[in-house]
């Protein structure tokens, strides 16, 4: 990283005295490694007046996470934020009893090395006791009322209340200016955006901005995910059926939109995707859905053709399990070419 412009900037980052609002040099860390913070008090002390770009994660980082950091870095370079923070916390509140909390991959040391190479200023890596000192469940709850009316929420009815809870806590601890989320977790993005709007979340005189970043994929199309590490070699090869099936659906929708093939209903489009997924018997399909940008499902009989005005993306999403690893993915259609 660049050398600090002055001693005050170094002191600011290392918490030697309170940061000054709008100090553009807050990100000028004297070392190449991010500061590791493990308590809420440490975060408050070191970011008290900084404009922070914040990337919440559960660790086991991959290029998709790093794309979020790079989006934050562009904002820092443009002077929109002063520092970049990343949280690494596997949140027990969003896992059901029969899910993979104990198997979720963790690699803190390797994660920090990746973040150091990307110029991250601090990492907040709290324990579950630090985040939930009185244990779970909390007396105060956040409930996402429409979560189970949407595909991923219907499949995991407990999940989005837990996501909303931990994100709200993290936002209040870090008090960021901008937060960054990946589009692979489409309902999570919609949930966070809705929560920020509903609760008027903001700090230091401005509302919190939610920035979403496109999905990063492997060379064969599989969406990058921390859970991919838990796939066996064979399951990893089988998992590629998910992006292949979504691409088949997008190709069919694009052809209908261009008038190259007859119009297609939502139910027919979902059936096209399910037919492609059926080529891999190792996959247990949880859902296939065609929704609007807020993840609200279209009626099965709705016709998708050249007469539809696509002011917002159509999102085609899928979830399924191969072995004991649950995978999700989605692709977006904006009225032109297929995209992810």
TrEMBL record:
Keywords: ATP-binding, Ligase, Nucleotide-binding, Pantothenate biosynthesis
InterPro entries listed in its UniProt record: Pantoate_ligase, Pantoate_ligase_C, Rossmann-like_a/b/a_fold
Catalytic reaction list: (R)-pantoate + beta-alanine + ATP = (R)-pantothenate + AMP + diphosphate + H(+)
Family as reported in the entry's similarity comment: Belongs to the pantothenate synthetase family.
Pfam families xref list: Pantoate_ligase
NCBIfam families attached to this UniProt entry: panC
SUPFAM superfamilies in the cross-refs: Nucleotidylyl transferase
Protein name (Swiss-Prot/TrEMBL): Pantoate--beta-alanine ligase
Top-tier EC class: ligase
One GO BP: pantothenate biosynthetic process
Species annotation: Monosiga brevicollis (Choanoflagellate)
Signal peptide (UniProt feature, chain positions): none
An example Gene Ontology molecular-function term: ATP binding
ATP-binding listed as a keyword: yes
EC number annotated for this UniProt entry: 6.3.2.1
Lineage top rank: taxon: Eukaryota
Statement: the UniProt record of this protein carries the keyword Repeat: no
Pathways involved: Cofactor biosynthesis; (R)-pantothenate biosynthesis; (R)-pantothenate from (R)-pantoate and beta-alanine: step 1/1
């Amino acid at each position: 990283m660049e050398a600090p412009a002055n001693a005050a900037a170094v002191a600011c980052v290392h918490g030697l005295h309170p940061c000054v609002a709008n100090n553009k040099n807050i990100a000028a860390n004297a070392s190449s490694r991010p500061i590791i913070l493990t308590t809420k008090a440490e975060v408050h002390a070191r970011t008290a007046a900084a404009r922070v770009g914040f990337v919440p994660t559960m660790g086991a980082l991959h290029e998709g996470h790093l794309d979020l950091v790079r989006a934050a870095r562009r904002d820092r370079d443009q002077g929109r934020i002063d520092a970049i923070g990343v949280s690494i916390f596997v949140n027990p509140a969003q896992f059901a009893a029969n899910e993979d909390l104990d198997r979720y991959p963790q690699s803190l040391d390797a994660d920090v090395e990746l973040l150091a190479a990307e110029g991250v200023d601090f990492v907040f890596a709290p324990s579950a006791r630090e985040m939930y000192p009185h244990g779970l469940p909390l007396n105060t709850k956040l409930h996402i009322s429409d979560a189970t009316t949407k595909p991923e929420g219907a499949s995991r009815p407990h999940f989005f209340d837990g996501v909303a809870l931990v994100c709200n806590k993290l936002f209040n601890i870090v008090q960021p200016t901008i937060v960054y989320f990946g589009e692979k977790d489409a309902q999570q993005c919609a949930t966070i955006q809705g929560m920020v709007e509903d609760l008027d979340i903001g700090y230091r005189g401005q509302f919190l901005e939610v920035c979403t970043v496109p999905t990063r994929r492997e060379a064969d199309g599989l969406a990058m995910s921390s859970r991919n590490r838990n796939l066996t070699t064979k399951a990893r090869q089988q998992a590629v059926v998910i992006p292949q099936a979504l691409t088949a659906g997008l190709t069919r929708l694009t052809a209908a939109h261009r008038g190259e093939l007859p119009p297609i209903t939502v139910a027919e489009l979902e059936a096209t995707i399910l037919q492609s997924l059926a080529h891999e018997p190792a996959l247990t399909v949880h859902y296939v859905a065609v929704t609007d940008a807020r993840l609200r499902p279209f009626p099965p009989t709705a016709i998708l053709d050249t007469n539809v005005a696509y002011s917002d993306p159509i999102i085609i999403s899928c979830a399924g399990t191969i072995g004991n690893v649950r995978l999700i993915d989605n692709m977006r259609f904006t009225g032109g070419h297929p995209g992810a």
